[in-house]
Amino acid sequence: MRRRARLWTLAAGLTVVAALLVAACLRLPRFGGESHPYGDRAVAAALRQHTANTVSSVNFDQRAFDTLGEESILFASVLATVVLLRRARDEHRVPPQPAPVPSALRRYGTLLLPGALLIGLYVIAHGQLSPGGGFQGGVVVATALHLLYIGVDYRALERLRPVGLYELADGAGEAAYVLLGGAGLLAGSAYLANTLPHGTFNTMASGGTVPLLNAAVGVEVAAGVVVLLAHFLTQAIEITEDEEAGG
Question: For 164-188, what is each residue's pLDDT tens digit?
Fold first, then answer.
């Protein structure tokens, strides 16, 4: 296809997308008005499924298939990073050198680690009840672990972060979400349909499949972020170019 034809194709596609966006905006409820059709339906559906946090109900029940796509994007990104940042033939590992850490930073980093880790796990576990969930809590958990790198040193982080196990956890979290979707098919409903007992409203066991899918996402996000940062830190701290090959 010639350059002119490609440009005309691009222009036609952008024109169609722009027209659809304008048409959609014209049908939006008036800003600040009393009409909230999507919100009203989302809240009603969350209450029917005994999910106190409407946002989690939307993410893991009403549009759980979209969330599977979002989780898969992160999983694919981590996998691509692992492949792209693998050690090349002209590179070799060097042992990381300890760096001096101010005593105040070491003290506060060590004290904050268990608290931050607990907060992240709490956010994941209570995703169906209060603001937060697997995506947010998973990032907090992964960040908490790296307080060791900031407050102690890289070798301390390595001891708490066996990358192979986190890679397995990353894949397990993704697989758990996919397999949990099959519960709906086994119950004679749609894939990722919320067919489990909804439990008692505003309790840890409420929401049917919502807390399970939320936990799967929490595991995948936490492990994925750890693996992602591990490979970037390895490139920055441990891997150097072979001097002979470079010369």
Answer: 999 999 999 999 999 999 988 998 9
